[in-house]
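### Sample
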Amino acid sequence: MPETLVERLLRGLYSAVLYVLVPVTVYHLIWRGFRQAEYFQRWSERYASYRDAPHAATVWVHAVSVGEVNAAAPLIDALLHQRPDLRLLVTTITPTGSARVTTLWDGRVEHVYLPYDLSGAVRRFLDHYRPQLGLIVETELWPNLLFCCRDRGIPVYVVNARLSARSLRGYRVLRPLVGRALRTVRVVAAQSVDDGRRFERLGASAGQIVVTGNLKYDIAVDPALDAFVRGFRARIGARPVWIAASTHEEEEAPVVEIHRRLRERWPDLLLLWAPRHPERFRAVAQQAVAAGWRTATRKFTHWPDADDAVFVVDTLGELMNFYGCADVAFVGGSLQDVGGHNLLEPAAVGTAVVTGPHLHNFSEIARRLEQAGGLRVGADAAAVGAALEALLADSGQRAAMTSAAAALVEEGRGAVERTLTVVYADLP
């Protein structure tokens, strides 16, 4: 597809604005660094300045952060298993995403931060790694990246493609450019029919859209989960346990209030608290202490003691195992207007799931889970607390929910195989 005059003008304007904003990117890294020290590291990768010699990565997968890395994990595992000859490069944008790549594959894939979408940085990135195939996870539509891949003949697929109505609206200013960039990809492997339709509205052609399902349904459960739960229970006994997972800052006060109320009924109730972002680990521990509760953390004590009221999961990569330790889970990002987080992780390990109303990033999964009877959605913090209380009090309800959710997870599996079938023609 040759570059048109309109495309050239749009790309030029877009690139000019990005270069003007380069000082803002530096400020952003510094600002984030004060909250999470890892942002002070590896700046050269952000601008595609590399010290090692150029080398080829046969397949490149881009997953922006932890959620996308987890979603892509079954696909990457399948590629490693079926094609051990492939050299895989996984890019992320966040340090937590980088840490998750290391935890999951520990040297079996290469990792580097994706550079900012500056045309020069993108060209240096592609010159250095020379990918033969690009798989972009979910909704990372960077125009210069896509155009440069097109210009070099690198086939690109958007896999597990998701586009909410809100995200579609967010692209309205850049839609003429993003739409043209989107038409350079081989296939948009959409999670659902609705996602596919929204990608068409953004600019993809109907022939580019293939509905492959959601990779998150192919979630793998740690074979050591049962042993993990036994170790946990050996330490705390038969106490009731709930988990507040992937919480954001504005959800922290409601979590404290919900726990306070629940402990009025169950004085020995334990809260497992796993904030979404590492920079909130210390803050939530301090809030729990300020509330008058004995509080421990995973890094400091490994397991909670019998007298602990709150146990902060201040590690990465262990969330699913701790879901398995809880009787019921609240999944955050849903009381604050974030859009929710992965509801299938607790469902896959057999834990009843409660969430708030803000679910636009997981609307299809939430709808299916709720219709199947595997999810409770609270309209606000008080309703979430009431749902948690009802489920803690009724093991029969919990069992019915977990059974329905497990059946839905099993029914939804197969997206990895369908995605591999789509991209197979371009696998080196």
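The chain has a mean pLDDT of 94. This sample (3-deoxy-D-manno-octulosonic acid transferase) is used throughout the tutorial notebook.
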